[in-house]
Queue: 4 jobs
Job 1
Amino acid sequence: VVDVEARFMPKSGNLRRAGLVCAIDSALNRVDYYALGPWENTCDRRDGVLAGRYSTTVADMPERYIKPQSTGGREALRELVLSDGKGFGVKIETEGQVGFSALRYTDADLMNAQHAWELTERPYTVLHLDAWTRGIGNASCGQDVGTLPKYCVPERTLTYKLRISAVK
């Protein structure tokens, strides 16, 4: 068991996100979570989603937007289990405001592609654990896209706690 207390101090409100990112073995492609869902949601788009336990796969996490951009986020995360077909994997329990996404693309991959067919899946899963993610569109389509200030990354200290443990 590993306990993590993460602290972020954003120096700009123009960031897309504030949080941790890591690469996870692509064999851990089953995603079971307790958070807002079952669909993608953001700090400014929570209508039609409910807190609950949901299951999906890494392949089914992203939304297929015409212009690739940050996608697949789930807010209000309390527990996440990434596992393989045999049930082995990693469990992450959270305390504080945490959103997550698990994709086969980096933010740079999504930002630099003009079309979905230009994307090449990474040989690993990109796991984001964010204290804050900018509101809808995440400025992926360009700067100054009109995100309301209250949905931008705040220029104040953001913290959360994680407990990471093995599954099976």
Note: The two ends are 13 Å apart (CA to CA).
Job 2
Amino acid sequence: MSFDQVGISSVGVYIPIYRLSTEVLRQIWGQGGASGERAVANFDEDSITLAIEAGIDCLEGTEPDSIDALYFASTTAPYREKQSSSIIAAALDMREDILTADFTGSIRSGTIALRAAVDAVRAGSAKRAMVIAADCRIPPPNSTLEPVFGDGAVAFLIENGEVAAELEGSYSVASEFLDIWRLEEDRITRTWEDRFIYQEGYFPNLKRAISGLRTSCKLALDDFAKLAFYAPDARRHREMARYLSLRAEQIADPLFDRVGNTGTAFALMIFAGALEKAQPGERILLANYGDGADAYAFRVRDPVKAVKDKSPLKRKIESKLMLENYGKYIKFKKLMEFESTPDFRPRTSLPQLWRDRKWVYRFHGHRCKTCGKVQYPLQKVCIYCRSRELEEVRLSKRGTLFTFSIDERAPVIDPPNVLAAVRLEGGGRFFSEMTDRDVKSLRVGMEMEITFRRIHDALGVHNYFWKCKPARK
């Protein structure tokens, strides 16, 4: 099947700032067979917050009001019965009259959502659609999956016209094969014996999808400058490359030793890395596995320069902080019970959250029409001149550090507790906790970013709000 002039116009990537090295894992478990490091979500991050960061990166230079549909793919959505995509759309400050949809149940969900977005744009039901894939999967401790799994998110803007990569064709295979799964009550991934998985599931399904794509598009593997394909680990990735008889320069970097297997986002993240280095006229093959397989043929166009200049994957990989020990990883992932503070009883109010949604989710403030001051959160009266003539405005998510304090004894998950005030670009100040920080490098005047994070859980509700963090260079 061919798709005329429909493709990817913008790419966004988010990789958490923290990394866990395999050296740390080996100190605890003595595991072998893996090298490098993998990305680990902070304690206040989940698949929703990762997706929002990737979406912000993808929307750079694009008006959120221009998006007509948002598709979110993940196997680790925080809610079982509640759309994650609606929360993401609100935090990205998109219009309310858009289509939001969640895709889940398989690590292939990301490429399935990509196909749905392309179909929507091609059919004319959406001019611009955004696809975001994100996962925070938890591997069994002391397992072969622990040095492999990583956390991350990737976003693509799909439209018809001047695109960076045009979708030329696709081929999909469905399979009921059961290899990796989680039950309703599971937090940790279950898996079967690996030889059975690879011989009966991964290899035959991915090969079939790639072969079907080549036949339907009448293309040979030599016609592709890069192949970005999913693999459960580095060894199977090398085996698949050998089976396909790929040249070394055709193999897109699988990121195992720097990010890890990011589940739903993994194949798409590898593809994003290949797109950053592509030249106009080249073809890239994207292949993904999970309950079958998908294969896509993309033709790179001239506007790819916009993607290359932004280099979202390269920037996020190079910006990192190392977790100094395994205990911090265990605490971030909530894999062990720690002593709690008896006096801390989180509360939430759904009516109040609904009333305040404009500044809680969308990060809106107001500008006084009398004195021109920008303020946050939304108020009924200007705190400077007491005027009631206020207009609601979208606040910048960038600024500079105005002041901060460090509390070494606060009972927080990631001590010390850092509170900060940020002077926002375009006006206004924001006061919050600081996350993703190296306290030794903090200084007044440094560049800051505003990030959407998970604050606490109460009464069965995930409470999200904005925090500040040092800008990632």
Note: DSSP finds twelve helices and 22 strands in the chain.
Job 3
Amino acid sequence: MNSRRFLFGAVSAATIALASSANAAIVSDIVFMVDESGSMGNVQANLRTNIGLFASILAAGGVDARFGLVGYGSSGVAPRMLVDLTSAADFATAAAGLLTNGGTEPGYSAIAFALNEIDGQTSLFNYRTGTLKNLIIFTDEPSNGDSCSKCLTGGNSTTLADADALLTDYNALFNAVLRGSSTISSYSSLVANHSGNVYDLNGLNTTDQTVVQNFVTAFATSKLQETIDYCTANPTDPACSSNVPEPGSMALAGLGLLGLALRRKADVSKFR
């Protein structure tokens, strides 16, 4: 999968703080879509306890972010909002309500739900005007069970093409934290088409907190760079301040990323 990064390892949050610009402001609303099947307990717990670290790295790099949460795949339950776009602390509280009793994983429908596009949907995400929308899915299964009575106007299911079109319509970035080759295949085209990356779910599916914190730090650092890259390429986008950090200002962060790249260089090729 060309130019997609599969990240592990540690990058210093202090390095990112040094790289940030005091006047930078990129406005981003980020919705996490989390699989609620039985195998996702560790992932959910680690996401909940490390959202503060993730948020702090974005903030230090000049991103004004809010966080929303969709749970999907719970047995007999359609994708649902656990919390509207809010602070990291409120996100962590809401994430305690994630379930682990699902047997299907309708990820494409979850994407439509996160963009307020399921027919008859009453829980709507309150995106800020002009915000950079960023969707991130966490799952260990391909999208399945997307058939429903009210998915998108004129249809009874949400397809890969539907999800792709919606991400395009909303000019949203898309990232995926995945495990397994079939799962990666299910989402790889969305990642490639919407400026994202695939990350290894195993970095969160563990009780080793050193591994988890290293993963979250690397994940947030990559997300920060992706956001800055977007605004460098699209400086007139309303979400992007005229004070976006210059590409050279991320050089300090690159020093931290160098060690990460050297450690995991060999892993990238298996997902291309």
Note: The first strand starts at residue 26 and ends at 35.
Job 4
Amino acid sequence: GACNYKVAYIPSKYDILKTDKVESKDIIIAFSGGKDSTATAVYYKQHGYNVYLYHALGLNPSYPDEWKRADEIASYLDVPLIKEKFSTEGKKDFIEHPLKNIIIVNGAIQWAIKNDKALNIAVGNYTNPNVASLNANPFYICGDDCLEMWEAYEQSLQNVLPNFKINMCLESLESTLTILKDDMQLFEMTQSCLGPQRFRQWTHDKNESKYNV
């Protein structure tokens, strides 16, 4: 028993959504305030895009204050930060919704349509399937962080948006470091999703008792 979420009916035929803004220089980045999404924002800003950072509230209860880091980075980069609140209902066995990233990108697309922005969406995932990261693993291991899921999602969206594409500018962790290494102030603003765990006293105590480190 994984989740008991309500599932919407998906029709077998689709109405094509007409948009003439696909080739625009607008780019909306699914933004957590972590190193990869920050590097993605810097990359597209350096390449002349109109960067919009899209941050979902309420889908990451493990780190309820990550929006503060997102605010700080958006201000530093002088780009707009869109914050929208999400909520889930029903019994669930996971702290986070297993399709969290997909839900966030859906929200970014909806925001773009409402605000007449191009449907250019970027995420801070890696494109190299050989890197030693969760992104290289199949869906059953790491859910919607994997390339397999993004490819399936992209194909499903193309039913209504024929030119839709998920943009990923990072090949590997080295790409993130290359982009951020010249601005250590910005680098230090970023926060890994694993970061808070490292500073909890019970984690230190458990590691020390179990592994003597």
Note: Residues 1-7 have pLDDT under 50 and may be disordered.
